[in-house]
Structure formats: structure tokens, C-alpha cells
Design a protein that fits this description.
- This protein has 789 residues and is α+β, with helices and mostly antiparallel strands.
- The chain has 28 helices and 26 strands.
- Among the domains are: 107 residues, Helicase, Ruva Protein, domain 3; 77 residues, Orthogonal Bundle (Arc Repressor Mutant, subunit A); 56 residues, 3-Layer(aba) Sandwich (Rossmann fold), CATH 3.40.50.620; 118 residues, Glutamyl-tRNA Synthetase, domain 3 (Alpha-Beta Complex).
- The strands form seven sheets. Strands 11-24-25-26-22-23-12 form a seven-stranded mixed β-sheet, covered by helices on one side.
- Helix 8 crosses helix 11.
- The chain starts with 5 loop residues before the first helix and ends with a helix.
């Protein structure tokens, strides 16, 4: 009789058909489960419980402790010394820390509860203690008490107890046929505490809450304490001293498996250098300005540690990166460049060739692409090591023309992972380097340099977005091949914000083709653009912290959510003032022509009358200006602006009533005639902002105002692929060349932020001159994010 097929083996150990078929889809799980079944000696089948525990071992077992796996399954699982999933989880954790070293099996048994027996009486006694500790909640919530929570409390006392028994003990109101005597005892105890179950206990909680709200004018809701992750979002990251576990398994097409991890010696040497502290890098490529996605990277990198590195391509971008990092509030431990390690990288490349892990290749980019698509080896892949060493030296000395040779890593052209297709390590480029000058004419690729520099700088956590997860195998392949220290690699979700693009390639195109006004265009979500728009680093970091550190890569963060955090900060920090964007002249007929009154206006909404620092002066004269949109010739009940015969209140001033409308020759409204109520006895509903002539016949302060909307019309323009530029919003920028402002705004300086009352939040733009100030609208007063929530 031939060897059993994998599906028959999996069904034979008691797995249900769906689980068995799912296991077959994953080659790694199939291989591991096959091996575990054979190690356990149960190819002819076993009980369902044993089979489920073997499946746990196959899918969750630490790869650095494979030497102990056979003993675990033969001596503990098949014999039922270990018989619960909790015990297998404890075994996995214990052996992961032991790794390939000798295992103390006595300590193992103690840690995993081998031989521990918990009686029904012991569980019953613990249930009594838990019920007593939760008595207040039981009396308040009655039969709605969270049973799962109580179960968890009992399990903490008896981690190796039978979960079914615990649940029967805890479940206060569900009947079970088993352990009837114990159930009756618990029922009697609860009935003594709560009495009979009432109709209110069975009532829908929402109805009960509505009735309570009708009776109570104030409802106090207990807010649960924040979780550890909410208090410290970086608590999810592993500690530097624990970096002994297998980082990844690299499966080669010939059946070989590399399980990459640090040895104890490597980790100890690393910890001596770092002192056990966390070291990270923030390594953006200087091929464009940083955007809001980089703000998330900074938050994680600098929040977890204090270090930064930058590769070098263009000095403008290098300078920008250093400057914007500091503006974002982060202080690097040190600033380094990949070029600082060019000699070490070259020496390691030579070592890679000597060890048979790299070769000089002469394929063109087109040929490389074709061979990768066909999963074919390069014709130069197996050339002699000595030949590759000679050619690589000639590449370094500039004896080979640009594009005629590359150094490629000898990985696996038939791998299931395309990022193992002999990635390029070095290219020839006859161009001076911003830091290294003309010393080198060969330059390392990102795939080659990134992981090595991580290791050379003793980085503890190499952090990147999820699209790099597929590169994990090549990252660790290179470090393993060179026998270097291996940092943790941790991928997190990329920040996707609606109505914009985050790709540097697309951002570059917007700038170079002049669809926008440069990298710092306020419509762009580059950090320079946000800063110019008037957004602070505090608001950006608040937004990033609110988004959180997640691995969910499908979420699109609404632009409104960013605006919410911007608005929240500006509401606290921006002083109030008045500006009229589209002025409509109003002549106060019963006000003296040469007279000017200086009124008090509040720079802060909660300002006290005696606090002079929170008050600014506004002139009130015969000629004032209101927004064109605040006047209609026909009034309506839902309209609170000015209309013929109607009164409104001018903010910080007096009620006025429209008495006449003056038209020009074209039939457009030229000006409004009105009368003011100096006694303020009139109590109109509408309140308008306004600006007055500071002296008779002199126009108010003129300023330029730029209004910005979302750069793209659709939520995800990237989905339009090649047509993404057609989605640009033609109304994303509006320039108002001559808005009117109160006189005090003339002293505004770069960095100042204001709330233009009823209009939004604005900031001074760098285009401002002494002759004319320019303001950018940072965000409107409208908050659609909280409404949507």
C-alpha cells in the first residue's frame, strides 16, 4: 500500500474537511503538518483532540526550536500529558525562548502545567471568590453580567483547568445537562443573590436605556480606562533583548529552507553596542519632498527610538529632509548617509561573491525582465567565482561602460517570491555623489544596501510599510548569507488619505508638469505644503497618533479626519479677527460722516472684558463692508442675513437696518443704505462680520486671500490608473486679490494663524510683502468629520 496522500493524513488525525483543505492551499502549512504527523507516529490516525493540538504545533511552532519538536509531540502530545490548547501555547512560548539550546524539561513541564489537575471543587471555590469580587457588577447588571469576563478571571487562577467546567461554573443562567448537581448549587446561590429572573432582565437593553433617559436629566457613563496600546502605541513592538526568534522562513525551489535568526553571540554583541536601547532609522530616499505618509513613518521611527539615516541623491532633497524632520518635532540621535558605508558595502559584496552568493551579469534591463518573467537563470549566473571577482573589480575601477554589467545576488530564480529573483546589488554610474564625490562609479541598490546598513548601525527595529513585506525574504537572505546581525523587521499599514495621491512618482509629475505650484503647494499633502497652508506639526502628529499603528492596509483615511485635527488645534491657538472676502458697501446714513468709533473686539472667544491682551480695536465709521453673500433682495424665514427692511447685528458693534438698495447701470447692486441703532434695543437674530473704513474715504486694509479645496475630485484618484490627472479639481484654488481686513491685521507676520470669523482658519503665506499680505485658508470652520462619526 502506497504512502497516504496529505488530505487523507489530515482527515485521519481528526481535522474537519474544510480545515484540511485550507491547509493544502498553503505549501508551508502542508509541509509542516506532514512532518509533525510523521514525527508523532500517527500516520494511521489519532483522536481529534490530539490531532487539533498537532495542527497547532504545525502552524505556530517556533522555527528556532525545531530540534525539540519531535520530543514534544511524541512525549507530551500523543501521550496526552499536554492536552489543551493553552498548554500547547505555553509550550510554544517556552521553547521559543530556549531555541536550539538544551531544554530543561522539568522547567518545561512546570511552565506548561504537565500533570496539573484541577478538581471541580477547586473550580467551584474559585467561582465563589470571583462572584464575590464582582458582586457590585452582578447586582447592577444582573443577568446581563459578562460571562466571558468572569470565565477569564477564573482561568487566571487555574490556567490548566477544563474550560468547559469553568464555563458551566460561571454561567449563571444557561442550563447544561452535564454536572447537574454543581449547576443546581450555583443556581441556588445566584437565586439567593438576585432572586427570580424578571421581565426587565429579558428586556431589550436599548429600550431599557431609552426609558432611563426619559426619567433622568443627567446620565453618567463610566468611561473604561485606556488600553496600554492607547497609552503607549509602541507597546506592540518586541524588546531588543528578545531578538532570538526566527524572523522568517525562506523556502527555496529545491526544497531547502533557511530559518533566519540571530545566534546568542550576535545578539549579545549587538546589545553591548546599543546598551539594550531601541535604535531605528528613518531612511527616505531623497528623490522628492516628504509627504504626510512620511509623517507616520517619523512618528513610528522616532516615537519608538531616536535615530535617522538618509540615502543621497539630490542635495535639495537631502537638505529638505533634515529641515522638515526637525520641524516635525523630532531630534535625530545622529544623521548618517548610506555613502558613509560605501567601503564596507563594497567589501561585503566581494565577500558575497567569494561565498558563491553573487555574480557579475551582463544582461540588459529588458533581458533581465524577460528572464524574470520566465523564471530563467541568467547565462552568466554560474560563471566562475574568480571571474566575477575580477569583473567586479573592473567595475569599481571604471573599466566597464555604464549599463554593460551589474552585480546580482544569487538567490532563487524559480522561487515563489519574485523578490528572490537575483536582485541587483550594484550598478555602474559615472556620476559624482553629493557626499562621496567622484570616488565611486559603482553604487549599491536599495535592496542590497538597506538591510546591511540596518545591521551595521545596530538597528533594533527596521520599520517599513506593508508593500515591503514581500521583500522580507530577500532582506534576511542577504544578512544570513553574510552572517550579519539581523534586526527585527516590522511592517505597518501605509497611510492612505482620500482625495490625494501619495506616490512620489505621481507627486513628482504634478510638480514637474506644473499642475501645482511646486513641492510646497498648499494643496499638496507634502509636509512642506501642509506647513505653508498653515498646518502645524502638532496637528499632523495628533492626526497620525489618532490613525494608529496598524497592519490593516485596506483603509482609506478620509481627508476630513485630518481637517478635524487641524481644526481642533487652531480652535485653541488661532486668534480671532474679521475679514470680508467679497465686499459689499454699506453706508450708515444716520452716522456722522467724519466720525469714527473704536470698538472692542475679542481676539479669543472666552476673553474677559478686563483682559486687554485678549481685546483688539476695530473702527466703526459711516462706510462699512459686509459679504456680498450676506445680503438678499428677497427675505425668507430661514435666512439670517441682511435684506430690505430687515435688521442684523454687526459683530461687536450695533444693529443695522437696510433702508435702500442702490444699483449701478448694469442692474447689479452697487451699495446698501442702512441705519444703525446706537441704543442696541433692536434684537435681530442674524450676526454678521464686517470691516469699516478706518477714516472717511480711505479703503480698509487690502489683503490677498487664497482659498484651497481638495486637489482631486474622487476619493481615490489612484484607482483611475493612467487617467488620474483627469480627476484634478479645477476649483481647488481660488485667489481673491482684494479682500478687506481690520487694521490690526497689518502687523501679521509669517507663522501667525488666525480665525477669520465665520470664514475659517488662515495663515500668512511666504508670498506676502510689506505692501500686500497674502493669506492661505488652512481649513474651513465646517467640521464634516465629527458629523459623519
Amino acid at each position: 500500500m502506497g504512502e497516504k496522500q496529505p488530505l487523507d493524513l489530515f482527515l485521519g488525525i481528526g481535522l474537519d474537511k474544510r480545515t484540511a483543505e485550507n491547509a493544502l492551499v498553503n505549501g508551508k502549512v502542508t509541509a509542516n503538518l506532514n512532518a509533525v504527523i510523521k514525527e508523532a507516529g500517527v500516520v494511521d490516525g489519532c483522536s481529534k483532540n490530539v490531532g487539533n493540538l498537532l495542527y497547532m504545533v504545525a502552524t505556530k511552532y517556533p522555527a528556532n526550536a525545531l530540534v525539540h519538536r519531535s520530543f514534544l509531540v511524541q512525549e507530551y502530545i500523543v501521550t496526552s500529558k499536554i492536552k489543551s490548547s493553552a498548554q500547547v501555547e505555553s509550550a510554544r512560548s517556552f521553547l521559543a525562548n530556549v531555541g536550539p539550546e538544551k531544554c530543561d524539561w522539568s522547567a518545561f513541564e512546570k511552565a506548561c502545567g504537565v500533570g496539573a489537575e484541577v478538581s471541580v471543587e477547586e473550580i467551584e471555590a474559585t467561582v465563589s471568590v470571583v462572584i464575590e469580587e464582582n458582586m457590585n457588577a452582578i447586582l447592577e447588571q444582573r443577568y446581563r453580567i459578562n460571562v466571558g469576563n468572569l470565565c477569564g478571571q477564573v482561568r487566571k487562577w487555574h490556567p490548566w483547568s477544563d474550560a468547559k467546567i469553568v464555563k458551566v461554573e460561571i454561567n449563571l443562567f444557561t442550563s447544561f445537562s452535564s454536572l447537574l448537581k454543581l449547576r443546581k448549587t450555583i443556581d441556588r446561590r445566584l437565586k439567593g443573590i438576585l432572586g427570580d429572573r424578571t421581565a426587565a432582565d429579558d428586556e431589550n437593553p436599548s429600550k431599557r436605556r431609552r426609558r432611563s433617559l426619559q426619567k433622568l436629566s443627567v446620565v453618567t457613563v463610566a468611561v473604561p480606562p485606556p488600553s496600554e496600546e492607547e497609552l503607549n502605541p509602541f507597546s506592540i513592538f518586541p524588546k531588543p533583548e528578545d531578538n532570538l526568534k526566527v524572523h522568517t522562513e525562506i523556502f527555496f525551489s529545491d526544497g531547502t529552507i533557511w530559518r533566519t535568526h540571530n545566534t546568542k553571540d550576535k545578539l549579545e554583541n549587538h546589545l553591548k553596542v546599543t546598551g539594550g536601547k531601541v535604535f531605528t532609522r528613518f531612511p527616505p530616499e531623497p528623490n522628492g519632498y516628504l509627504h504626510i505618509g512620511h509623517a507616520k513613518a517619523m512618528f513610528i521611527d522616532f516615537g519608538l527610538a531616536k535615530d535617522r539615516d538618509g540615502c543621497s541623491e539630490k542635495q535639495e532633497y537631502i537638505d529638505h529632509i533634515q529641515e522638515i524632520v526637525e520641524w516635525m518635532g523630532w531630534k535625530p540621535f545622529k544623521v548618517t548617509y548610506t555613502s558613509d558605508y560605501f567601503q564596507e558595502l563594497y567589501d561585503l559584496a566581494v565577500e558575497l561573491i567569494r561565498n558563491g552568493y553573487a555574480y557579475v551579469d551582463h544582461q540588459t534591463p529588458e533581458e533581465v525582465k524577460e528572464y524574470r518573467e520566465k523564471m530563467m537563470n541568467s547565462p552568466w549566473r554560474d560563471r566562475p567565482i574568480s571571474e566575477s571577482l575580477k569583473l567586479f573589480d573592473e567595475m569599481r575601477r571604471g573599466l566597464i561602460d555604464e549599463g554593460k554589467a551589474t552585480l546580482r545576488m544569487k538567490q532563487d530564480m524559480q522561487s515563489d517570491n519574485k523578490n528572490m529573483y537575483d536582485l541587483i546589488a550594484y550598478r555602474i554610474k559615472f556620476a559624482p555623489h553629493p557626499h562621496a564625490g567622484d570616488k565611486w562609479c559603482i553604487y549599491p541598490s536599495y535592496d542590497y544596501a538597506h538591510c546591511i546598513v540596518d545591521s551595521l548601525e545596530n538597528i533594533t527595529h527596521s520599520l517599513c510599510t506593508l508593500e515591503f513585506e514581500i521583500r522580507r525574504a530577500s532582506y534576511y537572505w542577504l544578512l544570513q548569507a553574510l552572517n550579519l546581525y539581523q534586526p527585527y523587521v516590522w511592517e505597518y499599514s501605509r497611510l492612505n488619505v482620500s482625495n490625494t495621491v501619495m506616490s512620489k512618482r505621481k507627486l513628482n509629475r504634478l510638480v514637474k508638469e506644473k499642475w501645482v505650484d511646486g513641492w510646497d503647494d498648499p494643496r499638496m499633502l507634502t509636509l512642506a505644503g501642509l506647513r505653508r497652508r498653515g498646518v502645524s506639526s502638532t496637528a499632523i502628529n495628533s492626526f497620525i497618533r489618532g490613525v494608529g499603528i496598524t497592519r490593516s492596509d485596506n483603509s482609506m483615511i478620509r481627508y476630513d479626519r485630518l481637517e478635524y485635527h487641524i481644526r481642533e488645534e487652531l480652535n485653541r491657538t488661532a486668534s480671532r479677527t474679521m475679514v470680508v472676502l467679497h465686499p459689499l458697501k454699506v453706508v450708515i446714513e444716520n452716522f456722522e460722516s467724519e466720525s469714527v468709533i473704536h470698538l472692542d473686539a475679542k481676539a479669543w472667544p472666552d476673553a474677559q472684558a478686563d483682559d486687554n491682551s485678549a481685546i483688539y480695536k476695530v473702527p466703526f465709521s459711516k462706510t462699512i463692508y459686509i459679504e456680498q453673500s450676506d445680503f438678499r433682495t428677497k427675505d425668507s424665514k430661514d435666512y439670517y442675513g441682511l435684506a430690505p427692511g430687515k435688521s442684523v447685528l454687526l459683530r461687536y458693534a450695533f444693529p443695522i437696518k437696510c433702508t435702500e438698495v442702490v444699483y449701478d447701470d448694469s442692474g447689479s447692486i452697487k451699495e446698501i443704505r442702512a441705519e444703525y441703532d446706537p441704543s442696541k434695543k433692536t434684537k435681530p437674530k442674524g450676526v454678521l462680520h464686517w470691516v469699516a473704513q478706518s477714516s472717511p474715504g480711505v479703503d480698509p486694509l487690502k489683503i490677498e486671500v487664497r482659498l484651497f479645496e481638495k486637489l482631486f475630485m474622487s476619493e481615490n484618484p489612484a484607482e483611475l490608473e493612467d487617467n488620474w490627472l483627469s480627476d484634478l479639481n479645477p476649483h481647488s484654488k481660488e485667489i481673491i486679490p482684494e479682500a478687506y481686513a481690520v487694521p490690526t491685521l497689518a502687523t501679521a507676520a509669517l507663522g501667525d494663524r488666525f480665525q477669520f470669523e465665520r470664514l475659517g482658519y488662515f495663515a500668512i503665506d511666504i508670498d506676502s510683502t510689506p505692501e500686500k499680505l497674502v493669506f492661505n485658508r488652512t481649513v474651513t470652520l465646517r467640521d464634516s468629520y465629527t458629523k459623519a462619526k
